[in-house]
Amino acid sequence: MGKATGFLEYERLAEANLPVQNRVKNYKEFVLHLSDDQSRQQGARCMDCGIPFCMTGCPVNNIIPDWNDLVYKQDWRAAIDVLHSTNNFPEFTGRICPAPCEAACTLNINDDAVGIKSIEHAIIDKAWENDWVTPQISSHKTGKKVAVVGSGPAGLATAQQLARVGHTVVVLEKNDRIGGLLRYGIPDFKMEKTHIDRRMTQMVAEGVEFRVNQHVGQNVTGDEILAEFDAVVLAGGAEQPRDLNVPGRNLDGVMFAMDFLTPQNKVVAGDNMPNQVLATNKNVVVIGGGDTGSDCVGTSNRHGALAITQFELMPQPPEKENKELVWPNWPLKMRTSSSHEEGASRDWSITTKEFVGEDGKLVALKGTKVEWKDGKMLEVPGTEFVIKADLVLLAMGFVSPVQKLLEAFGVEKDHRGNAKANTESYATSSAKVFAAGDIRRGQSLVVWAIREGRQAARAVDEFLMGASTLPR
Amino acid sequence: MASELSNPIAQVNIQAALENSASNQFGISDLGIANPSKPNKQGLYNPSNEHDACGVGFVAHIKGKKSHDIVQKGLQLLTNLTHRGATGYDPKLGDGAGLLMQMPDAFMRKEAANLNIQLPVAGEYAVGNVFLPQADNSRELVESLIEDIIHEEGQTLLGWRKVPVNNSNIAQAARDTEPNMRQVFIASTNKDQDAFERKLFVIRKRIEHAVAKLILKDNAAFYIPSLSSRTIVYKGMLLANEVGVYYLDLNDETVVSALALVHQRFSTNTFPAWDLAHPFRMIAHNGEINTVQGNVNWMAARHATMRSALLGEDLEKLWPLIVDGQSDSACFDNCLELLVAGGFSLPHAMMMLIPEAWSGNSLMDEERRAFYEYHAALMEPWDGPAAVAFTDGRMIGATLDRNGLRPARYLVTDDDLVMMASEMGVLNFPQEKIVKKWRLEPGKMLLIDMEQGRIIDDAEVKKALAVAKPYKQWIEKTRYFLSDMPKVGGVIEIAASMPQVDLLDIQQAFGYTQEDIKFVMLPMVQNGEEASGSMGNDAALPVLSVKPKLIYNYFKQLFAQVTNPPIDPIREELVMSLVTFIGPKPNLLGVDETEPALRLEASQPVLMLDELEQLKAIALLTQNQYKSLVLDITYAASLGKAGMATAVASIAHAAQKAVQDGFNIIILSDRNASESRLAIPALLACSATHLHLVKTGLRTSTGLVVDTGSAREVHHFALLAGYGAEAVCPWLAFETISHLSIKDSKEGAKKFVKAIGKGLYKVMSKMGISTYQSYCGAHIFEAVGLNSAFVEKYFTGTTTNIEGISLDQVAEEAVRMHTTAFGEDPVLANSLEAGGEYAFRIRGEEHMWTPDSIAKLQHATRTNQYDTYKEYAKLINDQSRRHMTLRGLFEIKSVGNAIPLDSVESAKEIVKRFATGAMSLGSISTEAHATLAIAMNRIGGKSNTGEGGEDAKRFITLSSDSSMAKVIGEDVIVKDIPLKSGDSMRSKIKQVASGRFGVTAEYLASADQIQIKMAQGAKPGEGGQLPGHKVSEYIAKLRFSVPGVGLISPPPHHDIYSIEDLAQLIHDLKNANPKASISVKLVSESGVGTVAAGVAKAKSDHIVIAGHDGGTGASPISSVKHAGTPWELGLSETQQTLVLNQLRGRVVVQVDGQIKTGRDVVVGALLGADEFGFATAPLVVEGCIMMRKCHLNTCPVGVATQDPELRKRFTGQPEHVVNYFFFVAEEVRELMASIGVAKFDDLIGRVDLLDMQAGIDHWKISGLDFSKIFHLPEMPAHVSRKNNDVQDHGLAHAMDNKLIALAQSALEQGQKVVIDLPISNTNRTVGTMLSNQVATRFGSVGLPNDSICINFTGTSGQSFAAFLAQGISFTLTGEGNDYVGKGLCGGRIVIMPPSNFRGLSHENIIVGNTVMYGATTGESYFSGVAGERFCVRNSGASAVVEGVGNHGCEYMTGGTVVVLGLTGQNFAAGMSGGVAYIYDEDGLFSKRCNMGMVSLESVEQSDMVAKNTVQHLNQPDEVTLLALINNHVKYTSSERAKALLADWNNMRLKFVKVMPNEYKRALIELAEDKVLVAA
Predict the structure, then answer these.
(1) How does pLDDT run across B197-221, given as a tens digit for each residue?
(2) Is the dihedral of CA A80, A84, A86, A91 positive or negative?
């Protein structure tokens, strides 16, 4: 219930960040979770709406008003139970979720939204600190075996849910470590990897088996997996990056963002990466204005780049959306990430015409301004420019799952190349093969992956047992 | 005499009838004798819902001197009551009237002699008036049956006489069903007249039973109006003035009587029914017995254990004492007859049936209290608004219900005549002959014993009865008080008694949700009262929900509307009682038993855990006088749902055996529920056991107590009570409370019990029932979604109209809850189900308003995107997967091929049928309120003020562009909205609700439609409250109240206690604005159709049928969820009933309640609506996001708040609202085109185009059957199905036409006029049309004082000087009736007795009940005593009166009242403003004053008052008081006032000032503010 008049008494309070000059020196998280008292005040701002729009704004349907109220009452123990009842991994979402719930918050209509994400962050951190996150070991075994291919958020959520109702679950991961994009896509300064490790420990205790270096189509076949398991859940993500086919694409210094970010994560994890590309003392151009682009900016700054420029094809969004017409939906508006705060220049409505090289090495980028009319892009004559560039990072999103994985199981695809399955059964065209997360819906947020993982787990449980007590 | 011949035929027919009767459940009217004009139960119409209310009166000679004059006076009295009755579609067709008098011996002797019948001496023969079939063979069959029974009962048949009648002037429909009127003469074989009367009673009952079993082919009726040696009743389907014309006997000079008891009926239907006319054999009744169902049930239950020394073997012949299908008054009459035949005196019996409020009355003497207390165990009150006149031919009297909800005035002359009537003026006596004018007071009795030849007043008659037996001693000897008994040792903690069961699991097994804890229980535990909610109910109906629901949820509470008033259980608590008797009931007819039965009493029915332990150990505590037995109502869970039927049956049988074995308290307990034991739903177990015990005649031999884990909200307790539980122990609720994180769980449990008690008061009072005892077993519910065979078996007699689930699914639901509770569901491992009934939750109940539907609607209307609207409409309309409403399951069929959209009536036309709902300025912000008005005026629809007045600045139509702030005021509007030329913020619909806030002549004059809110969907039968924090200065100004002081809208309109009162208010409002149509808003429930028919007969132009789910600013959550039914049911029932009654054409029918889309509109039209109300949807368009926080004033979008900071956030625009309504109309057009209908009118009433959607496959839904909703009454083609006619309000005959003509020079030229006129009681609502002329021309400013002075002489009719405007002064020499000065707004009223009246003014009544109700300004002087409820809700007028009845100054918020005499009880209840000065002659005023909200102060000498004291009217009290008393002398020459002034210095000390605490606080705050400003 929070406090009926809390929203009139207290301001929204953002989580504090460490100063830029301190945080760019390392890859540690720099967001400080709220104190108990600050959390309490944020909780008090929640109005306990008759219709909590936040709850449907949130893809996993977090029961936000309830835990806001519990935090207001400082009943942290109950708060984590409520939070965990809809979200397997609040430590991930509490850090890296863009928080569509806050966009949907009714206070966001004409005021500042409740700091829902910061409260989530505080709850789960407190829970870990107090050892309230313990394995939930199934009291019985069903004898059914399920393979989960891919260990990103969708795969992990599926695996945890299925293990908790007694199935024997094996997670197959092509990389050397578990976590998918969580592990190798998201920089440590946004989310340290110990969070994944802790969850893995919990999941192992719950009976999940993790097998790394299992590359379907390379060292293991679909048929082998189908032979071993009663059900297979494909949760391989959407890892095929969008490319930019302009002259000079093959120059040394033009690369996909993931090829730049992943090695850095491995280095932080203690691996030796002799061929790592560094941005140190380079003029870096990031193409793509999304979250991955942001991560490239943050990582480049930590490398010690000379200058960082980020281009976005789409026009600059407005500072503020027209809430009358947008709320409670996710608004298109100007967003400045913590990485941007650390230093980068940004420009919008820019298309890249050519990468200019010398001796096979990138030295500059040619671009031009564009205009958008009725959904069509038009170059603006006379706006061509050339910018110095030693390193171009392509962060223009992902187009589809890696097709080989789908082919290995003979799974029918939709027109975008994703695994074809609906959100009721999550079943693919192949018998006992299911798909969840980005591999099914295309590139999306971690929180959507968790949702799909949970729902797919229920569908698989129903498929195996005829009925399921798992929540959707 | 052909008895021998006809006997065998009768037997054959009886046999046939018996075979047939199994399929027939509807009483006399259906059994045997078919009546073509009176429709049978069909569709949603059920004849058993018919109501009536009436005018009643009598004339009697105190000394018993018989004369023909008294008969003639009776007929004249009846004629003058005509306006209290009603006529149907045919103005000649009255509802029935009649006269009861003493047996005219000389006349009968003469008539008998003509037939060669020799009558024995008077008293040894009886004459029965009998209605017989017209066809000879049928008549002879019935006559022979009668003769046989007379013979069998050992009496002598003397012969028959045909009663001469003149039917030339009666209505055709009445003539079609006119019986053959005959009289039967019977000679007594016994000299004892009382014994003869008893025998006659037995004979009549036997005849009734025998004839009921016949099947007669012809169409006439059978009925015995009277069969007595003392009295005779002449009555029929006649207009009041027709009785003497029709019955020629009554004009014979030899027809003499010392009494004439007459009655004129106002029925809700128009079907001819000769037998329903009053008087009955002993009574004539004006009112309604709300508890009749329970009373009838209990009477049946008493059957087996009843014994009577006087009646002996004959007692058995009387059963069934009360047959089905009778009116409540007839049932009451039956019971009264039994009590009198059983040996109770008539007044004694009346005191048992209609006891005065004794438990809360501190002024009652001990003996009388003991009398009532003793008899309370014998008989539960027959409760409801009632003025009952009764007679046995030797004494005549009248009594009034405890609330005094019906008027009854009387006078006594110096030549020994007494006349009592519903109003004065019906019979005129020379003033100088009158010695006393008084009224019947609440709970009081007037008795004239003609054998003793005197009036025995209330105190004397009751004293005599109270001391006749040692009741006090008996009670002390036989009573056990549960609370006085010692606590028993042992374990009280539940946890300890069920060690192996986890609390969470057991809560889940009983269906607990998180919301049960958060919304339902916690507020009760913390605050001692039920929580409030807002914005109505948009969740799925239980039968449509995919989730398992408790069986409680399938029942809806019934509530009173129009025909009987709800009670205010808070402000009028003195009439309420929760006292319950646990255990066997004594023999009702044990009149002379000297060993009175034991009684176990509890002060309220919710038992704490230790109290239940006491009951378990009751044998020990009472030395085996009581023996209790606990019956386990759980069974092996392994048996699953299939096991439930057997389990229920075996419990019922176990109870039967236990009672037979001598146990006299049965405790049904589900405490054994566990993983292995499944609990039968407690309500099912309780009702099944109760009914089984009733059937086996054992119910009154035992008490029935329920110990259940399921009960936790008010509704649950109400249901258990309604189906027979005398007490309930909610063990799991207590266990839950003890685990809540609250400071003191013991205190919490107590508060919980208190909250349930308060809630029960509300539930009972919304049906107008005052006592738990009468509520218990009364079945005041209807079912929605239960199969009728199931209901008939386990909840016999409860209405269920759409079928639904049966025992199988009920059991399935219990099993599902049980399985999930003890299952593996991870969501439920650590927490309860979310619930989602009160607030939207993802895993909770489905709602129509979802984030998606709200967002789509807002985006669509803000951008004028029809496509987005259609996405919204699809979310609401398509319920193929999410089932929420009945209409969601309807399918709309085509008339023919689809037609082009162009050929369909334009959207511009369709939107004119739309109105916005009644949302008061107060509940919503000024900006939100005015925006709706602008939008509706732009589209030609109608907006509604709601209850709260309206700023006159809004009445103009703009001639140039402007803005809201410019028109209303920069200081009022915080978020300005631009206005265009031609815009208006005037609400076309002006609502009149029970609080009458801001209802002035000017307000009413500004209306296109005036809406009387009888009930509100979110909380039917309840009042409202605007919390103080929402009463801003602006709102206080509009409502004539004090800022910051909360405002109460009482549950009843205090001027509507019956249908004829509503007719009166309709008439008043029509006078207040003859151009406006008058609308009456009702809420859907079973029976609303008959109420609507009554409303149509009461001349309403417009009827609103609201669904149960409508929005609200604040309402107790159990009312939001559990009262009323979906509008699909109520609308359809209304349409069917109006068509059957041929009344549909003259009214416009509007439907509202969660109407959101064009499809909703089309469904509404097909079910019979002409117009459509929308409330929540337009609010959502204005920005509402269903916070459901309206009651907290924290609406974050500035819609439902008065906080200026929050109102700044308002973003609504009239354009958005306009867009919305055009979208809806467009959707309607598309639907019309698709089904081939071009004109909207052609949709109305076409239920044949509706069907139930095929292919919906769900375990609960499959049992539903909508055929009753889709029923089309078969009526001739000329009978209209939609509005196409108007009402005749009869304003052409109004006296005001004359007044207006005579006052022309004042109205036109401002010249003063003085007029002298006679007046009589048939001149109703005088001065109101004249006031409308003043208000229309001069607004609230009115005319200068005394511009129009009118001096009347005589007795005024009801509503004299209603809404009298400033500048008009009325002086009446004579007396007034009810509702004088209703809504007074500026005028002056003076009423004084004629100079030749000999009585003392302060000892005689001068005006009736509810005088000055809702007055806002003006003054009045009454030289005499006023009735009950004087100055209720006065908000600014001043009044001087010389005495008042009960409830004076109730809910008053302003003004000054001076009472120069005695007051009744409960003075100043709910009074929050203004001041009253009481001359406290006997020094007992403080005992009669309700001290809940006021303090009593002395009136200080004016020069002694300190300078800076806070003062009412800014002057010392003495100055105010003296000025008013001096005025009183000046205008009325009151002797009383003169005497007080003559000895002022002493008399001043006797005055008590009644000062509301809230008002004082506000005055102090205002004074402080002024000081601050000054500084």
Answers:
(1) 999 999 999 999 999 888 765 545 7
(2) positive
